[in-house]
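Fold this sequence, please.
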Amino acid sequence: MSAAGVLVANAPPAFIPATAEIALALMLDVARDVTASTVAYKRGEEPPSDMGVQLSGSTAGIIGFGAVGAHLAAILAAIGMRVLAADPYKTIDMPGVEQTDMETLLSQSDFVLPLANATDETENLMGARAFALMKRGATFVNISRGNLVDEAAMVAAYQSGHIGRLALDVGRAKDQRPTPAIAALPGVVATPHLGGATLQNAETQSLSSVEQAAAIGRGEMPPRTLNPESAHRFEAFRKGR
């Protein structure tokens, strides 16, 4: 876009709290059998009062410490979780967060959440070896990108019982949704890529677009422009007003 002289601007990252919150929602759901109990009741069945997993006192492992990972880490630490984070490209200095390597994180975490960017390097980051390193019975939660996970390895680890609980908001289906066959497995909790889908996030992004369009109409560089030095078409428009 910059090479063509096209102005590029972005919206405020209002998706960050929304995405972190759905991670927390999925963690709580699978930890306390919320969906399973609800479905059983709706079928007219009496669900068992199984013992759940308390998040407070448990260990969460966040792989990739970007904006969502940092926001989620603060929430999890605040509710009493031990939080481990692995990111080879960052030095993490946040109260309540312990930076460690990925192998230690996988072996010590009760909840594992991959939140790295989807790149060639992170393709199938969670493969057979990574799942084997996880604590037996641990919970795996993916709200980031389906590309990070070898789904065959994930299913094998889940069906063998090595992964105790599985919660997904993303996968390799269309529009990054969870793969339907995996979402349909007994005990799996899955949502259709709802991470940033909140009214607050949508409103913020919409108002941002209005704000930027108004600035352009006034001949002003819009806020949050990423390439002002390359916006030649906008400069031509501004001079021709």
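The mean pLDDT is 91. The longest strand covers residues 163-168.
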